[in-house]
Amino acid sequence: MKKIIFIFAVISLFGFVNLQAQTMLNNGQLIYIKEGTQIHVNGDVNNKTGNIYIKKNQELKADFTVNGNLQNNANIYAEGIINLYGNWINNANFYNEEGTVNLQSQNQTLEGSQETYFYNLNLNIAGVKTLANNQYVQGVLKLNDSEIKTLTNYLVIENKEPNAIVFSSGFVSSEQGGYLSRKMNQTASYIFPVGNNFDNPIVRNVSLKPSNIAENQFNIRFAEKNPNSEGYNIASKEEDIGYINENFFHVIERKSGDSNLELSIFYKQDDGDFDYLADWNVNMSEWQIIQNSYAQTVSAEKIMKIDAINDFTNTVYALAKYEKLIPPITIYNSFSPNGDGLNDYWIIDNCDNCEVKVYNRNGNLVFESDNNSVSWDGKYKNKRVPDATYYYVIDTKQNADVLKGSVTIIR
In this structure, are 183 and 285 located in the same domain? Predict the structure, then answer.
């Protein structure tokens, strides 16, 4: 039978108390855990009605450890520390009062009918922490080596300090509709650690650096999928774009503010060779080049950068490769070198590196040009050749292609 501890009175505790219970149930009383006190519940806590105070002073903090789930249906006032090994279920009022919540297990869920505003939230054991609703952090988020999976929800970092997120290999992942959100008001780099799949992680962080101290807020999501899967057709693109990264893309949405920013997207050498960033133009339904974007390499990491960007009308961004358009080689089949200034030379267009040789009908070489540097004037050894048909061999130096044909002199 399930063992439950019922709380019937005001409790003011100091020291260490170990409650051996499957459930600690507060059914309407005030629980006051004094600074310096350690409470350890070897089971679930259900704050059904009433108030729980976890106190601190300048020197000491109360320490409330829950080995199971913590369900709040009333009021919790957290100045001290909550160490949680189960799931967080907030259905009522949680007042963070600059307290700290430590998530102490590999895989945990943050849920409930009410969104929670944490102050400090520490993910101390590597694993996956899943959001079943929106969550907020007003102090510092210590991701460390964990994944926060927001699903279609959002995680908002309200602390405007650039170092409000502390991480090693940890990251935030989101499905379509979810994101990591940060508020900013400093001219420093704000890192958005975004990625996917804790078991086989891919992390492609984003950095935003505002140009002034005005307030801005951005929502960012990393999508490890082909853009086609969300309707951003990689075949629909400007002609100068040769290739859109088909393995991942980012959603970068400005929620508020109007500052110019420096944008950096971090990726790996193995992701491919990319030249610039492209965004999906909603009105044109195509990928377009962001003209002032460029790639740089720092150690083993690649960075796609925009030194100054203000327009975030388009929210979907992908790495892209330049399409070097090679115009077709044009070979004219006749010319008239009669000195009238019209059509006096046999010209080969768009063949700068070609090696050109021309033979008469007997197979004798009458003209040659390395790198197509000289156009034929219809002469051999400075003497006019007869009007006739001549035969060319052109080495294009492109994939060993050799072009053969004829050209006729008509004076």
Answer: yes
Window from 169-173, 297-301, 340-344, 405-409 with minimum mean pLDDT: 297-301
Side-chain half-sphere exposure of 357, counting CA atoms within 13 A: 8
The predicted-structure confidence for 330-363, as pLDDT tens digits, reads as follows: 999 999 999 999 999 999 999 888 999 999 999 9
**Would you say 170 and 125 are in contact if contact means Cβ atoms under 8 Å apart?**
no
Give the residue numbers spanning the domain of 253: 4-322
Cβ count within 10 A of residue 232: 20
| Domains of the chain: total | 2
Q: What distance in Å separates the CA atoms of residue 10 and residue 406, rounded to the nearest whole number?
A: 105
| Of 264, 376, 251, 262, residue with least CA distance to 310 | 262
Tokens of 23: 């459930």
At 394, is the secondary structure helix, strand, or coil? strand
Report the candidate in 372, 348, 378 with the shortest Cα–Cα distance to residue 360: 378
pTM above 0.85?
no
| CB-based contact 324:242 (threshold 8 Å) | yes
Copy the structure tokens of residue 133. Answer: 């609703």
